[in-house]
């Protein structure tokens, strides 16, 4: 597995820290997240009990819209249709699935490999189709990240949780009991220390 | 007293060994033929062990003691979520199965947490139907100890606990034995070190089962569980068409029969032994908590006054 720039698991229970570290590594490689996470710090105290996980993220490319890889125009004059001319075929399957879901299969025609005709009012839908999001690599990574942290890494009994999530960081504080303000403050402190390391 | 043994050898002439064991009054519990190799799980009378050893040497096979043979083990996880499955729990269950035990995996409904964990009455009764319960717990010493204080309430069978820290059994409340170096492992256990840990677990469970057997031998059951199995196989033809894995599962003190209780319990109660007694005189035929199966518990000699 590709190692993060910082990866620290702190706990008063040394064996617990070691096994938690190994289980995080397993989960991250299972869900291929090693490139999305830059730095990670984890603090576990089973006696309190509290589990804090803070990580800085580096998400991949931004979302891909239809106008990024296709020309969208009005179709034949006098007909209610929009003509999409594809430059790349890579996203055709995803695009067709989205169009079918939106307009129904009988309103989509594909006379040629790279041409798709959508039977709809062009004046109303043209701009919307240009901005249609076809793929969201960042969102997919975030979904996997949440799956990893919330459903696999945090001990199952820790059901009281507070989290912060953005495109650059993720912070989870979890416990079996009501969250104490000092734990939340500790979470912020760990997050800040990660940011300082990043900027140093 | 019968000794649980495993024979691994060539398929050629292995029937001679089967016949020998049956002639000596032993029982063949499972026979698996894999291409040209055969694995036999059997119970051999302890006094005649040397004869069987000689025969297995003659056939160039390997005869080893398999203490898990003829037992049903519950592998209990706090839940059936990603946290525990598929790797660790399945590894444990599969490994014990390879050693000759029948394992059932049980995921508790509310088994998580050290303060909030609970065991429902149904789960407790279901676990109590087994010979040994293996509780597969997590990484932290404090959590394992706190949880052990209350999770096993009402469980009467021996409890083996696994977890990451190396604790002494005395430190884990209510546990019969504790095995360390496990913890919450999210990969397939296949490294040499991990396989050694699994070996250690099966050795510990073997020891626990031996103790159970010694305890049972002090007041032996009126009918040996493998004998019950044999009679059911011979007298209830429907069991042959049963598609459940191990339709008759052997336990240390009885058997579980995977037939519906309502339809078959009278038929089983009326099974006749050649000694002239019927099943209901030597064993309790009870409804099992597992589906609508039948659980047969042999009555000890002290109650009936005879052993057949």
Overview features:
heterodimer, A: 200 residues, alpha+beta, 2 domains, four-stranded antiparallel beta sheet, 5 helices, 11 strands, elongated, B: 308 residues, alpha/beta, Alpha-Beta Plaits, Rossmann fold, 3 domains, five-stranded parallel beta sheet, 13 strands, 23% strand
Largest sheet of chain A: 5 strands, mixed
**Total of helices of chain A:** 5
Low-confidence runs of chain A: none
Mean pLDDT of chain B: 92
Q: Give the CATH topology of the largest domain in chain B.
A: Rossmann fold
CATH architecture descriptor of the largest domain in chain B: 3-Layer(aba) Sandwich
Largest sheet of chain B: 5 strands, parallel
Supply the CATH class of the largest domain in chain B.
Alpha Beta
User: How many structural domains does the protein architecture of chain B include?
Assistant: 3
Work out the oligomeric state of the chains in this entry.
heterodimer
Detailed description of the structure:
Chain A is of the alpha+beta class. Chain A has two domains: 6-60 and 137-199, no CATH class; 64-135. In chain A, 37% of the residues lie in helices and 30% in strands. In chain A, strand 5 and strand 6 (82-86) form a beta hairpin. By secondary structure, chain B is of the alpha/beta class. In chain B, 33% of the residues lie in helices and 23% in strands. Chain B has ten helices and 13 strands. The A-B interface holds A 11, 13, 15-16, 18-20, 22-23, 26-27, 30, 44, 46-47, 49, 151-152, 155-159, 176-177 and B 78-79, 81-83, 112-117, 138-143, 164-166, 183-187.
